[in-house]
Amino acid sequence: MDVERIIECIKLRDDDGLRVQLQQFNKECLSLFQYAQCFFFDVEEWEKRKFRKNKMRDCESESEDEDTRAQEIFLRQTLATVLIRFLQSEPQARVTRVCLRTLRILSRDKQVLDRLLTDSAFITLARLAGFDLTSAPGDKSSDQTDQTDPIEDVVKALSDLESNQEYEEACARGEEGCGEANNISIDRRRRSSVFKALMRGKRDTRASVVEDEDEDEDKEKGAGKWEEEQNKEAVKILCNVIYNSAWAQERAAELRLLSGLTEKLAKESQSGLPPSGQYYELRLIFLLTALRPELRNQLKQEGGVSVLTAVLEKCVLVQWKNQYEVALDPTVPPVSVENTLRAQETLKILFNITYSAHTLEPDENDAALYRRLAAVLRHCLMVCCEDEEESDELKGHTVNVLSALPLSCLDVLLCVPLGPDSKQMDGVNMDCVHTLLLYLEKRLETGQKVKERLTPVLNLLTECSRAHRGTRRYLRQQILPPLRDASVRPEQGTTVKSRLIRLMTHLDTELKHCAAELLFVLCKENVRRFVKYTGYGNAAGLLATRGLLGGQRSKGTSSGTQYSSDSDSDTEEYRQVKGRINPVTGSVEEELPDPMEGMTEEEKEEEARRLVTLINKLSKDSVIQPMGLDAQGQLTPLTGLRDLSVEEEGSAEDTDDTENVE
Questions:
Q1: How many domains does the chain have?
Q2: Domain boundary, last residue among 361, 383, 413
Q3: Sequence-distant contacts of 603-611: CB under 8 A, at least 24 apart
Q4: Could you tell me the residue range of the domain that residue 523 belongs to?
Q5: Are residues 375 and 289 in the same domain?
Q6: For the segment 374-398, what is each residue's pLDDT rounded down to a tens digit?
Q7: Which has the closest alpha carbon to 541: 519, 557, 556?
Q8: Type and span of the H or E element at 55
Q9: CA dist., res. 546 & res. 399, Å (int)
Q10: What tens digit of pLDDT does each residue of 185-241 get?
């Protein structure tokens, strides 16, 4: 990769030569995996290439290899700085595009990253991305230089870089007078520190690699097309930089990068033109709100919910029928993959800024805003998408946002007129609830990322069942139908009920509590009914948490919900085997022989004492801790067994002494 030739073309103002050299540089970078995947990357493939690279490195001379790598790093750092300065001169659109592609490649190299963490770089990239930044008051960036002649500024930047390299090399040799270089080095390390708060996302399925740049590049394109591609490349660079650097996140907040992005989104949502590069703008907003908690409140206060709702409406092709009712037209074509991906990013941002809304009582304005959003979210659940996998992802993010909204604003999910094929309960439209149930069933079947994908939908269905009688009755009808076959344990089978009961004994405490809570609410928080459908062994975890292990009725529900007093009638099949059902397993079991058959009463008492003594010994050795129930139904250490054992031992000693005297 002839980086020196690229820099020479910039000095000579040779745009055509620069463009050819950068195209060659980008193509060569495609063979190096750490540069080729410029937005997301395959971790497994990266590990393989890293292993091969390390193996080849071991075969080379160590000193020679270090010198070569240091020179390559310096040239890439120089190239990054020079390209940023060159872009400030506003070159031709074709040259700008190829420069941005090169910078996008370099932005994934953490050893080059610090050269892109300057205010001038942020301002330049924001301008090329199509929005403005506002510098923090009193901020004086040492990177801002006189822009009267950008090419001369590039030459000056090169000389500065060479001087800094000489200082750093002198420090490496231990020479005096290099304090300034030490400060520069420390500052760069601090700026390029990696922030690891987010897991790496899946690979971008649309444009994750640099496209081939050949003779097609010379074809004429409209000004709008050039600007769109330029905007995309600039935003991708900002995404890479902010994702990989905590310093960049701080400076982005100070420069009010989020405000510029929100303003651009608002303008795009109001215009009738199709958005250009909006997916990456949304991705950048998501990164900022995920990594900087204070920016979530800022976005919310600046009207982010209404702006993002408008963006979401365009993504899923919303057509309003009434104030809070979206028309669902089966003749409308499915949502494209591009729009589905943009909708997913929008939903992720909405969750970031509304995740605590369900804990607050919304005022009139917020309630209207959340109801409109809930109506759009209902449409997201019901609409068809071109790609089934992306459709499932869309539903998952929709459920996340629904679980974050105030429960009082979710009434719009049910306030839809019944259609010819609508699911209903007591005259209320249950299509949305049915879709959520189908989504839950699909997630239970796949068994992948169980906690992340199941917890939100379980919580949402539980709270909706508590709040709305019709929803609870419909879900109970679908999940807990009347018991007929008691020969199989409740957790065995492939039904939604059996899968949920299996989750009640899952290792993850939060997940098993969510599954048990849903079934408990569907049983109207009635202990007897809950044990009947799940078995005492499966139900013990939730009952212990609530202090209901003794089987007594709950004095009050956890949310103050008042359930109706209708009875749970047993089927004829269930009544016939009810007396033979094991309450612990919840199923009929084969009768086992009595282990004490043929024993006298004295032998039975002796066996009981022996068991008490063994339990007491295990308790003393801290192997087990016998527990019992107190008056409140809570588990408490059982000390009666130990006291009884001590009395028996004392009695036995007295008997032995009497025999010895005789």
A1: 4
A2: 413
A3: 609/648
A4: 424-434+455-560
A5: yes
A6: 999 999 999 999 999 999 999 999 9
A7: 519
A8: helix 43-58
A9: 27
A10: 545 555 555 444 455 555 554 544 334 444 444 444 555 577 788 899 999 999 999
